[in-house]
Amino acid sequence: MGAATEADEIVALSKEHAELKPVAEKARELAVAREGFAEAEALMEGEDAEMAELAREEYYALKESIPELEQEMQLLLLPRDEDDSADVVLEVRAGTGGDEAALFAGDLFRMYQRFASLQGWRVEVVSVSEGDAGGYKEITANIAGDNVFGLLKWESGVHRVQRVPATETQGRIHTSAATVAVLPAPTNIEIEIRTEDIRIDTMRASGSGGQHVNTTDSAVRITHLPTGIVATSSEKSQHVNREKAMEMLKIRLYEREREEKDKARADARKSQVGSGDRSEKIRTYNYPQGRVSDHRINLTLHNLDKIIAGDALGDIIDALRAEDQALKLAAMEEA
Q1: What are the φ/ψ torsions at residue 97 (nearest 5 degrees)?
Q2: 153 shares its domain with 104
Q3: Residue 134's closest CA among 24, 205, 208?
Q4: Alpha carbons 105 and 281: distance in angstroms, whole number
Q5: Residue 306 region, left (φ>0) first, then alpha (ψ -120 to 50), else beta?
Q6: Each residue of 95-150: pLDDT tens digit?
């Protein structure tokens, strides 16, 4: 890392180092434990009774801890998704439920913002369409940091909320939904986009009013004609927007290729957690009961307030990762 001079190279090496460091540390810990176990076994047979007793205690302590270390090492060596270390593009869209769905989309986005802050990640909003009563009809953001996709990939899917909307006068519980998409944003995406395959439109950027409204047609929308995929950017510079929208288009085309590969392996992955199928309802947030249920692993937690605030989202992600690791270990043992 000390020999790197380019910023991109330094970032890439830092991420690789962050991935390898826990593996190297665990391997070192396991090697020391095994060496200590062998030494303790030899000292148990010595003539010094006091030393033999100490060695015996060490022997049985290490005999118990080494299998745990070996399992931890095995988990660290499990096959990783090649995009786990990638930064991501996070998209949150209001689904069924009108204004309440937009409000819920806003709650979800703030949950991810808080979770990202706790991880030390950077969040940059790329485009936003605000709801009429608050929240977002759609919001897109870049999230950069260590192992972002590796943690947030479990969030892709349909999120459902059950609660009494602020506009509800009869106190009835409504059910609304929002869709979350987490797209890996690896560097140097090699996606060829032909000029004749895209249509570029400029449009008026929307804003919150006052000095923040952009009164020129600077927002850019790029449509990929063969697939119908659309990417937009609505900052103040049309030049910047063209670059960002093109990069977003590449990311979405990359994700499309990725999904096609996943579908080809669907039979082998049916039981795996986190397939990223966005049509699947993955989670329910029930406000009257204060619970959150993840339907993929039949997990229910009764700390909705902390989860929707982002402080306890990690509890769900940890459970999903543990389930995925268990499935991978079982697959390795069967192979």
Answers
A1: 130, 5
A2: yes
A3: 208
A4: 15
A5: alpha
A6: 988 899 999 999 999 999 999 999 999 999 988 999 998 999 999 999 999 889 98
3 state SS of 184: strand
Same domain (yes/no): 164, 206: no
Query: Is there a contact between 180 and 156 (Cβ–Cβ < 8 Å)?
Result: yes
Do 95 and 184 reside in the same domain of the chain? yes
Q: Are 256 and 227 in contact (CB under 8 A)?
A: yes
Condensed to tens digits (0 to 9), the pLDDT of residues 194-212 reads: 889 999 998 765 544 444 4
C-beta separation of 101 from 95 below 8 A: yes
In a domain, 281, yes or no: yes
- Report how far residue 55's alpha carbon sits from residue 64's, in angstroms, rounded to the nearest whole number: 14
Q: Band of the pLDDT at 273, cuts 50, 70, 90? A: very low
The residues, ordered by sequence, that sit 6+ positions from 310 with a Cβ below 8 Å of its Cβ are: 110, 111, 112, 113, 114, 115, 117, 118
Domain of 206? 195-262
Q: How many CB atoms lie within 10 A of CB 199?
A: 11
Per-residue pLDDT tens over the stretch 156-198:
999 999 999 876 767 889 999 999 999 887 555 567 888 899 9
Q: How many domains does the chain have?
A: 3
Asked if 154 and 95 sit in the same domain, the reply is yes
